[in-house]
Amino acid sequence: MDILISGLLLGGTYALIAMGLTLQYGVARIMNLANGEVLVIGALTAFLVYTSLAVSPLVTVLVIAPLAFAASWLVYRILLLPLVRRAKNQGQLEVDSILATFGMGFFLVGGMVFIYPELFAYSYLAVPVDLAGTTVAANRLVAFGGAVLIGLALYLWLNRTRAGLAVRAVAVSPLAAGLVGINVEKTSALAFAIGGMITAMGGVLISTFITLDPSFGVIFTMKALIIVIMGGVGDIRGAIVAALILGVVETAVATLIDPGLTLAAAYTIFLLVLLFRPEGLFGRRPA
Amino acid sequence: MLEIRNLTVTYGLHKALQGVSLTAEKGEVVVILGANGAGKSSLLRAIAGISEGDVAGDVTLAGASLRSLGADRIVEQGIAFVPEGRGIFGDLSVWENLMLGAYPERARARRKQNLERVVSLFPKLAQRRGQTVRTMSGGEQQMVAIGRAIMSNPDILMLDEPSLGLSPLLCRDLFENLSKIRETGIGVLLVEQNAKQSLAMADRGYLIENGRITGEGQADALLSDPAVQKAYLGGV
Amino acid sequence: MTPGDPILFVNNVTKRFGGLVAVNNVSFEVREHEVMGLIGPNGSGKSTTMNMISGALKATSGSITLKGHDLTRAKTFENARFGVSRTFQLVRILPELSVLENVIAGAVFGHKRRWGAEAEAFAAGLLERVGLAERITAPVGSLTYIDQKRLELARALAGEPSVLLLDEWLAGLNPSELKVGIDLVASLRQEGRTIILVEHVMDAIRSLCDRCLVINSGTKIAEGTPDAVLSDPDVIRAYLGEG
Amino acid sequence: MMPASLRPLLVAGGLLGLAGFVPLVADGYWLSIAVTILMYVALSTSWALFSGPTHYIALSTGAFFGIGGYLVGLGMSDYDQSFWAMAAIAPFVATGLAALIGWATLRLSGVYFVIFTLGLAEMIRNLISWIQNNFLGSRGLYVLTDLDERHIYWMLLAITAGVFLFGWRLGRSRLGFALRILGNDEEVARHVGINTARTKILMFMTTGFVAALVGAVVAPRYYYIEPNVVFSPELSFIVVIMALLGGTRRLYGPLLGVIPFTLLWEVISVSFPNATTMVLGLTFLLIVYGIPNGITGLLSGFAARRSA
Amino acid sequence: ADPIKIGRVVHMTGPAAGGDAVSHTPNVKLWVKQVNDRGGLKVGDEMRLIEMVEYDDKSNPAEMIKAVQRLATQDDVDFLLSPWGTGFNAAAAPIFAKYGYPQISVTNITDEIPELSERFPGMFFTLGSTTGFVEGLRDTLNKLRDSGAIGNKVAMVNVADSFGIELAAVARELLPAAGYEIVFDKSYPLGTADLSPVVKGAKAAEPDAFIAFSYPPDTFALTEQAIIEDLNVGAFYTAVATAFPAYAGKFGSKIEGNLGAGGVNLDQEAMKAYRAAFTKHNDGPPEYWAAATYYAGLQVLEQAIEGAGTTDRQAVTDFIKANEFDTAIGAISFDEHNESRHYWTVGQWKDGAFNAVAGVGVPVGMEPVAKDGWN
Ligand SMILES: Nc1ncnc2c1ncn2[C@@H]1O[C@H](COP(=O)(O)OP(=O)(O)OP(=O)(O)O)[C@@H](O)[C@H]1O
Ligand SMILES: Nc1ncnc2c1ncn2[C@@H]1O[C@H](COP(=O)(O)OP(=O)(O)OP(=O)(O)O)[C@@H](O)[C@H]1O
Ligand SMILES: [Mg+2]
Ligand SMILES: [Mg+2]
């Protein structure tokens, strides 16, 4: 029980890290290696506003959403679209986007160092809550709630709205999407921007309980990539389920076997999933 | 209806199409014949707005220019396109493909009627509604592709070698179906290798060689033209 | 050349995809020097059967043997080494290799192996054989559709396979090209190659095949000479259509 | 008369001989740049041997490099082994591991493979740290040798020469041809009789071997081995970026990427000491937009234009 | 007169950046400003200003090596400051030695001091050895145990990186030898997102003392989890970053009584002056551990240059070995292994300040007291 609850909470954190990337990679076909940096920017913003203006991160998360959306939109339109247009095939785009977003990540880290080079941490809702006999931190619970809300909203948007349908269609085949009257570039930009928005929001929520410095992004990027791939590229349910599985497995291994083996366990799970379902949990086989 | 004037398509230095002009009306089937590499696909792709080359010239539909529009807007204007290689959502189910076909604004109101039309053309699609399209056989996928295009409620339906890989039975069905589609008032612009069958049901035809129109006429006239027979009908 | 003894045995082969039975308990033999046609409606299981012979798919049950080699459980590359070669329903050219290298690719690792100058000479010979001699230095990207098909054929021949699988190799050709294509396959037949041919072009089936096998919904419905099966009422109903 | 195919070999041999004299004329700063360049040349070139033709973007360099360095540190600090013994053992351990990993992962293709190899350094670092923590214990892994940068340079030069020789042979071998086919179309590769799994694993092992050897050889340069430094995901990326920048179609492609890139990096570090990371990031972007096909692509573009 | 050029390699980004930004960089800025404000260093009869030359290595040792080489041979700096981190100091040592630069290393904790100083005679050590550290911790625990505040049962966790592994390995010898029973002993990987299983496990073992050889992010995370889980122990120790102002900034009064690596003696006048100057110049107080010692290292260099009256590096090195220096952390001198046996090992939070409770060759600020809950 203990393990399940803690594990799910951790899974919620992972979902926050990965949901944005699954849109960006699955739909806009940009393997965004600057994902972690965007997360850290969200966290840094929350920290700065909290410590200097005493604004609650729950307010920040709402303010940062439109900003991150707009910024990501611009990044896609200005920096990434030329690469998409130029790419002759998916492989080419993958290589180009790896290189370009790696560079962007560097740039963002460098920028953050200018603003705040040190570790940043603040205390927000660091109080114990009793949940079915397990003590958990309220801030983690809030973040989990945030993950659930964001995940749900995203799921409904993708499955119940016309724009969401377009996004899913582009994820499957940009060519065919164009032929059924979907504006592929706009839809990709939208998916990328929403992805960036979710990641930044995740950063804000995570900052309430994780201590970071500007260079931490790469760790999150790697986690996010693993979750996205494990869940199946482009499938939001997959990313969420994979995040939860990873959370529970890591917690179980940490509690029952040894905390030193959590990462090894995570990768083992990753590998096992891919060996038995090479397309990821919810993914479709690459054509 | 659809009018193309002086269309030129260049890939780098290579001119795939030069000064091509043609028209297609609602309710008629127009077939384009030409050897491999003559530029037929280049023509259709340019009209549909997905050309990889540089396009010059005029494309108008009912008088409105399509030249500067993206593929998505062109669909909204009323041109549906089934490219070579089909352009379907391989990872989605048959049904999802058909539903996505009705994505354009213009198609939504008539989704039900169009769906009925598709199912009556291709009953197999209703039986296989849940199958992932990528796992279907070549011919089955072709049905999905055409069905998807009809779902977009087009004025003009463009098909690039739709009979490729179809069994004789289905081939015949396909051409019959195209006739039926014509009867519903849709214009069909068709690129075909199967000259005999396609000319047999078409109203008019164009011949393309090396990127230029080298002949045009009523289908029956072309069918009996000795030069056409020699080049496209296996020299009977 | 007159057909010899059977070399390929397909015994009670079944292939299931989840609930769908794509190939249902099909058996047949192919004799040496024989051209066998495999026809049937779309989705009847022709490509699936070819894929099981080439090893791209594993049969759910049944067995396939070629000259004493069990192909059923072998890996794809092993099937190639045992003497199966194929072309693909959608042409698959190796885009970053030269025309010559595309053919050499078929000669190095497969059934009969060659390397170095010997492979080059052999591949050049094959290119000439399929009518691509002039295009040997052309960039592969510039090949026309029929030339790509020729190239793929040359690659398949390069391993000197015991059995050659042609999956709709003639599809997509216009009538005049079709003639060239049929003549080319006919000349292969003259040489005594063993071929399984999947085609929807009845003229080709009639003029090229010694024998035909018809499957419908994964089940064999007729077998015999082209003329016989193509006038079989079941075949007409399921495949050719009346009238 | 000499056969045309031997010409590049002689040219390469000549260049190599010249490169051998670098430590006699360059010292200090320039030597350490030379060492860095050689290190990346060896890593990028061997990376490209596998990833170039197959298009499998392997991000595992950091993992194998780390194994090399780590084993040297561990052996010398905790088991009183000599540097030479450990430098000899480490690459074989890495090769064994590469075989295992290759066997488990090469069924993955495309992005799945990329991500797994990216996580590999992390995973190996954790496993090793855990083993060390629980079973070995340690007082810091010091690699105290009498080797200075000149010796490291010469060792790296020998490795680089080995990699080039291997690559040259590979380009003329069936294995190399099989790799190219495989990179074009794996399905076709299987159908022409290539044992694709074996081919990929063999090459993955080779890359692992070289990376570990390089990691072992440069360990004395670091003196102290920290897992979170030697198992660096950044290294994996830099190696890939340099190789892609140079171009992976030719054996010498990565070399053409490493040299300008390292020098450019150096110029940036010196000119923008306070914003190195930011400027580097911008430079990456410029490279991606400006040199899409790598430097070899750029060069052959020039050549094509000249002859046209 | 020409300025004195002093070189330094900074980790601006990457895993080592956070530590550098807290413990080194602001001190260097402060020191350069102070010296230049008063006219520079007095070398012989001349007053020479300090000019810093700095490069960023992004926490990459290969880059650092190149940068140090560049400083030494291209920029011809007169002196070099030591980099942040044990590994970086080790990697830099051969180059410092090759060009004869004294290397007053601070953030460098190792048990190999004799070997290293023999190999690199210009390398100095100021922050103590691994064993010295654990001894300080042991002695602190002893005091608490003697006073009856805690029992024998210790839960120990460590980050699975060289630093943590090394300290834990030493602790596994020293603590049982002192009669402690290690009831929980686990490691966790660097970058672990959720340490609640670790703290839960430790709590279940019902320890009297909790020791974590941790890095900055996990120091924060472990403390937060301990608060959430209400891990009530008489001694709660976390390692790196416990001494950081950000630690108190996050937890406020809850960390009253927490033990951690480092600590300083706040009663010393020199320390007071240093802290005041630092706070003024950097808009915030320094951390309570290595920052003061790093500053002291700068003072040693300053006094040695002025004392030797030359920028001759050998002379300055010899001067450092032979003399005692008056610094922010008190008087410093080096023994035959170039080790300054003047350092604090354990500090404790009390009334918003982190006071040293154990040290070697330095007066401690106070005696350790038992932690009394998380309020
Ligand atoms: N994307 C492209 N880039 C460069 N050249 C192209 C491109 N697409 C087509 N071509 C060239 O343009 C010419 C016409 O090609 P197109 O595909 O339009 O011919 P087609 O008549 O449709 O032939 P097929 O019957 O083989 O389909 C050919 O020479 C082809 O090589
Ligand atoms: N991977 C798969 N998963 C699920 N079903 C499949 C898969 N591959 C093929 N099928 C199904 O098996 C049946 C046989 O397909 P196959 O490709 O063998 O047909 P075919 O006879 O070659 O048809 P065509 O003439 O159209 O190429 C089809 O109904 C197809 O949908
Ligand atoms: Mg075409
Ligand atoms: Mg088929």
Automatic annotation (TrEMBL), chain A:
It is found in: Cell membrane. This is Branched-chain amino acid ABC transporter permease. The chain crosses the membrane at residues 6-26, 38-55, 61-83, 95-117, 137-158, 165-184, 190-212, 224-246, 252-276. It is a multi-pass membrane protein. It comes from the Bacteria. Its main location: membrane. InterPro entries: ABC_transp_permease (IPR001851), BCAA_transport_permease (IPR052157).
Automatic annotation (TrEMBL), chain B:
Keywords: Amino-acid transport, ATP-binding, Nucleotide-binding, Transport. SMART domains: AAA. InterPro entries: AAA+_ATPase (IPR003593), ABC_transporter-like_ATP-bd (IPR003439), ABC_transporter-like_CS (IPR017871), BCAA_Transport_ATP-bd_LivF (IPR052156), P-loop_NTPase (IPR027417). Residues 2-235 form the ABC transporter domain. It comes from the Bacteria. One of its GO terms (molecular function) is ATP binding. Belongs to the ABC transporter superfamily. This is ABC transporter ATP-binding protein. It comes from Roseibium sediminicola.
UniProtKB/TrEMBL annotation, chain C:
Keywords: ATP-binding, Nucleotide-binding, Transport. Residues 8-242 form the ABC transporter domain. It comes from the Bacteria. PROSITE patterns: ABC_TRANSPORTER_2. Gene3D superfamilies: P-loop containing nucleotide triphosphate hydrolases (3.40.50.300). SUPFAM superfamilies: P-loop containing nucleoside triphosphate hydrolases. Pfam families: ABC_tran, BCA_ABC_TP_C. Transmembrane segments: none annotated. One of its GO terms (molecular function) is ATP binding. This is ABC transporter ATP-binding protein.
Automatic annotation (TrEMBL), chain D:
Pfam families: BPD_transp_2 (PF02653). It is a multi-pass membrane protein. The chain crosses the membrane at residues 29-50, 57-77, 83-104, 111-131, 151-170, 201-223, 229-245, 252-272, 278-304. Keywords: Cell membrane, Membrane, Transmembrane, Transmembrane helix. It comes from the Bacteria. It is found in: Cell membrane. PANTHER family: HIGH-AFFINITY BRANCHED-CHAIN AMINO ACID TRANSPORT PROTEIN BRAE (PTHR30482:SF10), HIGH-AFFINITY BRANCHED-CHAIN AMINO ACID TRANSPORT SYSTEM PERMEASE (PTHR30482). This is Branched-chain amino acid ABC transporter permease.
